Every structure is written in C-alpha cells, then in structure tokens.
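step: validate -> pass
step: tokenize input -> pass
step: predict -> running
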Amino acid sequence: MPDTVEADFIANPVISGREDRYATINIKVDAVLESWRMSLFSYEWILPDGRIRAAGELSESERPKRQTVEDSLKRRIALEMPILGIGLMENVEIGSGRATFLTLAAHGCKTMPVHVPKTNIKEFAPFLA
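step: predict -> pass
step: emit ->
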C-alpha cells in the first residue's frame, strides 16, 4: 500500500452515541506500532523481532480476523476505524480494530485515520501524521 491508505473508513460503531468523547485523527502507523509492541497483547500479532506475523503464523482465533480485513480490502469494503487509547504503561493500546490496524500495517500502510478519546488527545501528539 502506498503512503495513503487505499481503503475507505467508516466510524467505528463502538463510539456510536458517544461521538462527543472521541476525536478522529490521522496517525503514523509505524510510530503507533512501535508503542503498541509494549502491550501485553502484542505477542499475538508481533514476533519477537518486531515483525507482524504472516497470516499463517497467527493463532486460530486471530487468523479469521485478518482474513476478514484482507477480504474487505480486496472487495473495497469500508473498514471501521480502529480505536486507540493510552495504556497503564503509557503505551498505545488498540481498543477496537486491532485486526484492521495490524493488517494494514502489514501491507505497509504509513498513515491511518483512528478514533482516540478526547481525554488522550495530548498523548497522541507524537503519533500524528
């Protein structure tokens, strides 16, 4: 994928009715990915050397999620924006849309629109595209 995402995005339904609590920003995928590596859940998608697992290396529970995103990309179906936040260890956490974020990152996506809580907007300054 080139610098801009070759996908259409829609609002994540998780924020429905709470849109006033979230901001939509464009982030640098590599910077977010580097921060997310500190997450307790990153091992499911990230290898020890920092590479994103290939589809065949994912667990049986994660593989179908990636396939769904891959299928949506091929069919040009709009993807739900991931929801990011700041975790207890002050790293980025992916609250919703992990498969979307990581599949696009695996395709070399450089920037992506995401939702973040307005209370965390200052913490996302280093990740803005």
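step: describe -> Strands lie at 9-10, 22-28, 79-80, 83-86, 92-96, 111-117.
step: cleanup -> pass
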